[in-house]
Each structure stands twice: as structure tokens, then as C-alpha cells.
Design brief:
The complex is a heterotrimer of chains A (150), B (461) and C (169). Chain A is mostly helical. Chain A has helices at residues 2-20, 25-45, 65-96, 101-118, 131-149. Chain A contains 5 helices and no strands. Chain C has one domain (2-155). Chain C has 7 helices and 2 strands, in the order H-H-H-H-H-E-E-H-H. Classes of the chains: A mainly alpha (150), B mainly alpha (461), C mainly alpha (169).
Chain lengths: 150, 461, 169
């Protein structure tokens, strides 16, 4: 069982790390989600005892409920983070019609040239409406807050 | 009493998340809340110095069952430092006009995360608060919304998420080998288990926190992020958020895993040395002010590592002192980046002297404490290294000053008065700490003695 | 999005409509039963927001504005967080540790059927509101992204780039 779990964690982590090296933002986000799940699986694997579900009425030997609580919290957090990152990627897409890191860095260089000529602090380039990130961000933080209180 | 700062920040953050933060009225409300949380923290600090650490088990459970909140002097020092930097950055941004409606709320959420993790006595709870702070930082990093900021935010998120996951995995591993999540319980159990698995976990924790700090092999994200974000956000990231790294290394290294810290000391010294040299050389060769400061931040982390590796009373003393002063320096210097004017120039000089370790600025204390630790340890190569590093940092700070404030340009517009005053206030604070260091030294001493003979360590289970 | 709406069959549409109310009932049941059985506010919130996500997938983002409950859900996040924080912090004002519930263990609580009203229930309701609001907010953001994208298709000259793949996945 330990071997299977550790293999699963390793494969998830490795595929996540591979995806994180990509230029495409969406692949990168999928990579993050995979690594998050690898961590969650690792927490489950770190249980002190593995048995039946720890739900009343208790009959046989039960699993360690603490790791399950921890995993739930970690899932909530990674859910919030991935939603946040997706919203950010969407924001990038609106502003630049691209989710490729290389194109973004090209745009950055152009912006840097503009900044150099102006020699001021960089101004927001596109004034898109605040709704998408303005809504998702406090909710993301709020959700992490919720995770804490559990 | 422990919950007062947390409560103020948390309710305030929720309240401000509903309100529109771009209005000055709401930003002022946020400033008021943050300031009162800071005062509450300081008040709590006086109480703790007088009466010893306080702790509370959430929900009235027994010790070791429920989540523990516990505050000692170390936590208070870092909480006060972080809230001060957050407050300065928020006031600065308000004076400059807030551009996003969530900015004040996010600063408060980050305050919740930071105070929470400095005040918690439970490793998993530490992770949760850590994520609250990190999520706010992820959003803050994209604040401004130019391509640069987006790219910086993505880089920041990817690298730090990886660091968080490593930390989460190491917490699960600690739980697996000790069966505890409360720090006191872990500290009691760790000496009983075999060393090799713990060493592996300690390495993971070290990597996670070094990534936050931007130590040499994990530094690659730092420069683009610090240069890409806006000055106030860069100040928050380097002055407040990076404290997680130094606090985490102290808490987990010195408090929970002292044996593994002693084993890893040679590695820390090597990495710290490389960091100092790399940071200094890169800073000397850079031109844009935020780049110089970002690479200088990598160098400064090296000093903290070396002090941590020396360990013992003098070593940890130097770590805390250096982390505090470094946080203030970085907060001040990053805020000066976008400004012009003679007041800013003077403040910059104070900050630069502080980084280089020239009296009377506060940085002198940090440098001298590291000298002292190295001499105590008879490590003359380190003494030489610190001297070299200081000389180089003086060089690059002077170059920066020369480039920015000596040459008067025609198109130069002096920034508005209010941000300048804020920066000056921070600089005066640094000078006061440098001229009248006794309170800081006393409280650091108190924190170190708390760290070395905390009841958690050394109690047989 | 509009293409997708056309491809959903009547069967899915009817099923989605019929399922909405039972999903909410199950969610509330899970939230309330959490103290004697499996479940809590978090899972209830996830189930309820999945119900909303199903409606949006089948009928399109207009669905988000049809029901006032769903429309106000994102705002409810803050209300929920406030409720949860209050139940957590009020004991601290009374000098007890954080999150101590009231009435304390072993004492009589007000019953409504088999449901016991203790402050922990209020906390869970808060958690439910947070999660439900968050779920609906995320669904709304992503649904708007879909809509925006189809309306912007002519605006940008590179429709075949990686962004397309991203939106599709």
C-alpha cells in the first residue's frame, strides 16, 4: 500500500513539475493543481493508521481522522489558489489575447521601453473593468480564512 | 488578549472586502484598523515580556488535542515588524491613491496571515495562516496590472506554491514520524526518533523557507518579482512577507529541530556565503534601483543564514536582530524607488547606510551582532566575509545614490509631499533604533532566551 | 457558450432543472446532519455550488441572474465569513478560548426535531455561505470568461493561439 501511494505521489508530482516548465499558462496551472494533489495524497499516506472510515458508529479499526481533516483543509486551500490563478490567467488573456509566457515577456519588453522613455512609474496599460479579479480575489482570501477556522 | 490583534485584523479585512478600497475614506479606515492591531500587538508584547509566553487551546480542548495559539517574544517581534511594514506600505499607497478596490482588504488579510502564523503553536495551523498570507500576496503581486506585473505574479505564484507544497509535505511527514502537530509535542518527540528521516524533513523545510527568503540557489524568482511589482507591493513582499522565512527557520530550525540545524550548519554557511557574494556582485553590476535592491535582498539573506548556522545565543540573537533591521531597511528602500525629492534622498541615505552597516543607522547593530557571533565562534573567514559584504553593499548603495539623487535631470518632477513624509518617518525610525538600540536589544535577548530554554525543548515526554 | 447551449439536449435540460431543488435539499440536509452523521457546511456548500454550476453549464450564464439566491450568493460569502468569525471570536470576549461553543458540552440545547441549535451550527452555516458564495463566484467568473471570449473572437487577430486551447479546457 505504501509503495502504491508513494508511486502515485511521485508520478503526480513529476507530471505536475513537467507541466510547470511549459510556457502555456493553462498547462502551468494544471501542473500546479497536480502538485497540490500530490501533496494531498501524501498527507493521506502519512496517516498513522489505515482502516475503516472514521465515522460513527465505530465497529472495526478506523483510519486516522486527523490526516483527513488536514487533507480537506489542504484541498480547500488549493481549490482557492487554483481558482485565483485561473482568474489571473483569464485576466492576462483579456489584456493580451494570449496565455503564453513568452508572448507576455515580449509585451513586457515593449512596456519596459515605454516606461524608459517616460521614466516614470508604470501605469496600468489596459483599463479593463475590475469585476473579475476584484470579485475573485477577496473570495479567494476569504476561503483560505474559512479553511483556517475549520 | 492573544486574539485581539487577530480579531481586529480579521473583522477589518472582511469589512473592507465589502467596501470600495479606492475611496480614501475606506483606505483611512484600513489604516486605522491596522494601526490599532499594531498597538494591540505591542501591548500584548509588554505583557509577554513581563509575564512570560501565553497560550490558548482553541475550543477549550486539552493541550495536544486542539489547535494551540501560543505567543512568545519571538512571535511578537516578528508580528510587530511585519505589521509596521504593512502599515507603512498601506499609508504610502493611500497617499499615492489606491488603484484597486481590494488593495486595503488584501493588506489586512496578509496581516491576518502573518500575525496568525507568528502566534500559532500548531504546525498545520502555521501552514494555513501561511497560505492566507501567501494568497493575499499572490493577488497583491499582480496589483498594477501591466504585463510586467502579470508575469511577476505568475512567477511568484508558481515558485511559492511549489515551496508551500514542499512545506505541506514536510508537515505531513512530521506528523507521520511524531504523531503530533503541536509544536511543543513535536519538540518533545523529535529527539526520540531516528535522525535520518528527520534530516530529510528538515531539508524540505529548509528549502521551503529559503524559497520564501530567496537564498542563493532558490533566488531566481526574486529579482523579476521585486522589480516587476509596484514599490509598495515590493516593500510588503520583502519587508513583511519574507519574514515568514526567517521566522520559520528560527521556529522550525532552532526550536523544533535543533539537532538537524546543527548537522546542516556547514551547508548553511556555504549557501550563505555564496548568497552574500552573489547578491553583492549582482547588485554592483545592476543599474535600475529596484534591481539593485532585489539582488541586495538576496545578499542580506546570506547574513541571516550564516548567523543561523553559527547558532547558540549569539547566533540566534544576530538572526533576529538582522531580520528585523533588514525588514525595515527593505521596506524603506523599496518605497523610495518611485519617489524624487530631497527628503527622499536623505531617507535613502539613511536606508543605504543601514544596509551597509554604517552607524548611526540601525543596520550597524545587525552587522555588529553578526561580527560578534562570528568572533565568538572563532570563524575569522566569516568575519572577513561580512566585512567584504558590507564594503560591497556600501559601494552599490553609493552607486545607486549617485545615479539617482546626485544628477539633477531637467525632466525631473518632485513627488508629492505626503509619500515623502512617510518615507522620511520610516528613515527617522531607523535612525532612532540605531541611536537608542536598548529596547530592541533587550527584547531580542528576551526572545533568544525564550527560544533556547523554551519549555517545549528538553522536556522529557 | 451559445454553441454549447444548442448542443445540450432536452434530456439534460430537464434533468438539470429537476435536479436543482433536490441538490439544494441534500446540501441543507448534509449541513444540518453534520452533527450526528457524515457532512458539514463545507461539503454542503460544494454540493450546492455544483448544482449551480450544472445549471450554468446547461443553460448558460444567464442562469446566474435568474434566481435571487444565486445572484446574491457572492455577497453572502462575506456574510458567512462574518458569521463564522463571530461564532469564533465572541467566546474570546467572554473570556473563553476561541471557538468554544455554546451551550457547552453536556448541557441542554434548544432542539428542533433532532437538530440541536448550538453555536457550532451557526459556524457551519457561515462556512456553507462562504463556500457556496465562492463556488458561485468562481462559476460566474469562468462563465463570463466564456461569454467574453466568444464576443471577443473578432477583436484579436490570433484566434488559433494557446488561449483557445486554454479556454476550451
Amino acid at each position: 500500500m505504501t509503495l502504491i501511494l508513494s508511486l502515485a505521489v511521485a508520478i503526480l508530482f513529476a507530471s505536475g513539475a513537467y507541466l510547470m516548465l511549459k510556457h502555456d499558462l493553462v498547462r502551468l496551472i494544471v501542473g500546479m493543481v497536480l502538485i497540490g494533489n500530490a501533496a494531498n495524497l501524501f498527507i493521506m499516506a502519512a496517516a498513522l493508521r489505515i482502516g475503516d472510515a472514521p465515522v460513527y458508529p465505530i465497529e472495526d479499526e478506523t483510519s486516522d481522522p486527523l490526516v483527513q481533516a488536514m487533507t480537506l483543509t489542504a484541498i480547500v486551500i488549493s481549490f482557492a489558489v487554483s481558482a485565483l490563478v485561473l482568474a489571473l490567467a483569464y485576466r492576462v488573456y483579456i489584456a493580451h489575447a494570449s496565455v503564453d509566457m513568452r508572448e507576455l515577456s515580449l509585451a513586457e519588453e515593449e512596456q519596459a521601453d515605454i516606461d524608459d522613455t517616460l521614466d516614470g512609474e508604470p501605469e496600468p496599460m489596459l483599463d479593463v473593468d475590475d469585476s473579475s479579479i476584484g470579485e475573485s480575489s477577496p473570495v479567494g482570501a476569504a476561503d483560505a480564512g474559512e479553511a483556517k477556522t475549520r | 488578549m492573544i486574539v485581539l490583534p487577530l480579531g481586529i485584523l480579521w473583522f477589518g479585512a472582511v469589512l473592507l472586502a465589502i467596501l470600495d478600497g479606492t475611496r480614501t475614506k475606506n483606505a483611512l479606515l484600513a489604516i486605522g484598523l491596522l494601526a490599532s492591531a499594531l498597538l494591540a500587538t505591542i501591548w500584548l508584547g509588554f505583557d509577554i515580556v513581563a509575564n512570560g509566553p501565553r497560550s490558548m487551546v482553541i475550543g477549550g480542548w486539552e493541550q495536544g488535542v486542539g489547535i494551540t495559539l501560543s505567543v512568545d517574544t519571538l512571535g511578537i517581534i516578528f508580528a510587530t515588524l511585519s505589521l509596521t511594514v504593512l502599515l507603512a506600505a498601506l499609508v504610502f499607497e493611500t497617499a499615492n491613491r489606491v488603484r484597486a478596490r481590494v488593495f486595503p482588504a488584501l493588506v489586512l488579510f496578509m496581516g491576518v496571515g502573518l500575525t496568525g502564523l507568528f502566534f500559532t503553536g500548531d504546525v498545520f495551523n502555521f501552514y494555513v495562516f501561511f497560505e492566507i498570507a501567501m494568497i493575499s500576496a499572490y493577488v497583491l503581486a499582480s496589483y498594477g496590472e501591466t504585463p510586467r506585473q502579470f508575469r511577476a505574479a505568475f512567477l511568484f505564484i508558481v515558485v511559492n506554491l511549489l515551496g508551500s507544497m514542499l512545506f505541506l509535505i514536510s508537515i505531513a511527514a512530521i506528523y507521520h514520524i511524531t504523531g503530533r502537530l503541536d509544536m511543543a509535542g513535536i519538540a518533545a518527540q523529535i529527539p526520540l526518533v531516528a535522525e535520518s528521516p528527520v534530516l530529510l524533513i528538515a531539508t524540505l523545510i529548509f528549502v521551503a523557507f529559503s524559497t520564501k527568503l530567496g537564498l542563493f540557489p532558490f533566488h531566481f524568482w526574486l529579482a523579476p518579482v521585486y522589480t516587476g511589482t509596484r514599490p509598495s507591493v515590493a516593500a510588503i513582499l520583502s519587508g513583511a512577507l519574507a519574514n515568514i522565512g526567517s521566522y520559520g527557520l528560527l521556529r522550525f530550525g532552532a526550536d523544533l529541530l535543533p539537532r538537524e540545524l546543527a548537522d546542516g550548519a556547514p551547508v548553511l554557511i556555504v549557501l550563505g556565503t555564496v548568497s552574500i557574494i552573489y547578491g553583492a556582485v549582482q547588485s554592483v553590476s545592476r543599474h535600475s534601483p529596484s534591481e539593485v535592491l532585489a539582488y541586495s535582498a538576496i545578499g542580506q539573506v546570506g547574513y541571516i543564514m550564516i548567523a543561523l548556522a553559527i547558532g547558540g545565543e549569539v547566533g540566534f540573537f544576530a538572526v533576529i536582530l538582522y531580520a528585523v533591521i533588514n525588514g525595515l531597511n527593505k521596506g524603506l528602500l523599496f518605497l523610495t524607488v518611485g519617489l524624487r525629492g530631497w527628503l527622499v534622498g536623505a531617507s535613502f541615505v539613511v536606508g543605504a547606510f543601514s544596509v551597509a552597516g554604517v552607524p548611526p543607522a540601525a543596520g550597524f547593530l545587525g552587522k555588529i551582532s553578526i561580527f560578534w557571533a562570528a568572533i565568538e565562534d572563532d570563524a575569522w573567514s566569516i568575519v572577513f566575509l561580512v566585512f567584504l559584504g558590507s564594503a560591497l553593499s556600501f559601494l552599490y548603495m553609493f552607486q545607486l545614490y549617485q545615479r539617482r539623487f546626485w544628477i539633477a535631470r531637467e525632466d525631473e518632477v518632485e513627488s508629492s509631499r505626503l509619500p515623502q513624509v512617510i518615507v522620511t518617518a520610516l528613515a527617522i525610525g531607523l535612525l532612532i533604533v540605531g541611536l537608542w538600540p536598548e529596547p530592541l536589544l533587550d527584547i531580542t535577548d528576551h526572545a533568544v532566551s525564550g527560544l533556547l530554554d523554551s519549555p517545549a525543548v528538553g522536556v522529557s515526554p | 457558450m451559445s454553441d454549447r447551449t444548442v448542443t445540450t439536449t432536452v434530456l439534460t435540460q430537464v434533468a438539470a432543472r429537476i435536479l436543482l431543488i433536490p441538490i439544494f435539499v441534500v446540501a441543507i440536509g448534509i449541513m444540518i446532519k453534520g452533527y450526528v452523521d457524515i457532512g458539514d457546511g463545507f461539503s454542503a456548500g460544494v454540493i450546492a455550488s455544483l448544482g449551480v454550476a450544472l445549471q450554468v453549464m446547461v443553460f448558460g450564464p444567464e442562469e446566474l441572474t435568474r434566481l435571487p439566491v444565486i445572484q446574491r450568493a457572492p455577497k453572502g460569502t462575506f456574510l458567512g465569513l462574518l458569521i463564522a468569525l463571530l461564532t469564533a471570536f465572541v467566546p474570546a470576549v467572554r473570556g473563553q478560548p476561541l471557538m468554544t461553543h455554546w451551550p457547552p458540552a453536556g448541557e441542554a440545547a434548544i432542539h428542533f426535531g433532532t437538530v440541536e441549535f448550538i453555536t457550532a451550527v451557526a459556524f457551519d452555516v457561515g462556512v456553507f455561505l462562504v463556500v457556496f458564495g465562492f463556488g458561485v463566484g468562481v462559476t460566474a467568473t469562468l462563465a463570463r470568461a466564456q461569454e467574453r471570449k466568444s464576443s471577443m473572437a473578432g477583436l484579436f487577430s490570433r484566434p488559433g493561439d494557446a488561449g483557445e486551447a486554454g479556454e476550451r479546457s
